[in-house]
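Lecture 7 notes: from sequence to structure.

We start with a single chain of 361 residues. Read the sequence below before looking at the structure.
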Amino acid sequence: MSPFEKLISYTSAHRIKTHLVFWLCLYIMLLGKNNFDYISLNLRKEMLGIVFDLFFAILLAYLISYRTLPRLIIGRKHIMVWLEFIACSYLLMALNRVMVVYVLEFLVRTTPFTQESLFEIFTDVSKLFRSYFIQSFFTSLFFVFAKQVKSHYLAQKKTLLLEKEKAETELKILKAQLNPHFLFNTLNNIYSLSLVNSPITSQSIAILSEILDCILYRCSSTYVPISQEVTLLNNYISLEKLRYDEGLSVIFNTDIDRNGMIAPLILLSLVENAFKHGPGEDTGNSPIILIDLEVADNQFAFTVKNSIEKSEIESESSKIGLNNIVQQLNKIYPKSHTFKTIKSKRYFTAHLTINLQNGNN
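Now the structure, written as tokens:
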């Protein structure tokens, strides 16, 4: 947390104390601008005069910050807001002059002396504006400025927090769409094995259990270790190879110089898509799936290439799966990834690169 953030946090937690310290510091600043080479009476007069003036400047500052500006920002009945501000300012300045004439002057002047009447005070608008309003207004701007800076920062922070929560919610929705999709396909595979009483059915269930344990309990965070994703892919590939037996060739190459962090389940969805729309379409001509995973100098590269036997337009389910991947990548790695797919007559290739150093910040 930066010093500015600590200051904002402290002022929010100790509002009254902060306001008192702020006005005390402003009082000292206003007092310090004067030359103290006065006799004690002049110094006493100066101190009391600043107290009176600052008190009404404080009232004006709170009027502007908590009443006038919020209503102007909302954008309703501006004329009424301005009329109210002018009326309140006039009353504050008139009261300020009344306090100076009927209280302060008795404290600092020797009687007898002439005084203005209340009528003269309230009707001398020019003097109220020149001698009181201008000074109080510009003094109050110190507080108004500080208040607006803090309000702007808190509003910006709240907006960023809401955007982050929205992005996290959308990611959870996308993951929720992925997991049932994967589970549905895998259960179908195991169901097919059970129909023929295959001896590898129990092994398939054990592998599925490990996969579900990873998906349900280890993939809840935004990033997971790459090694965990590699293990998940190996389990998934083993499960699919049990289904296809020797009729499918899967080559999975890994070259990792360091175990970085990556968003979970994206790699699995790419591999699942390769199985579903590669050998899943036609298992009669020795289908092949090539998977390459490489991590070097914080650069992650993942390529999945599967053979296809049919050249018809991609199915809707395939488009949904790829769109899901694209949405997750755009949210987690908005400017740190590239993802492209290439479809030829015989092969479909998906290639993903991620700058892990920028993406995981």
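Strands lie at 224-225, 249-256, 261-262, 288-296, 299-307, 337-343, 347-355. Keep this in mind for problem set 3.
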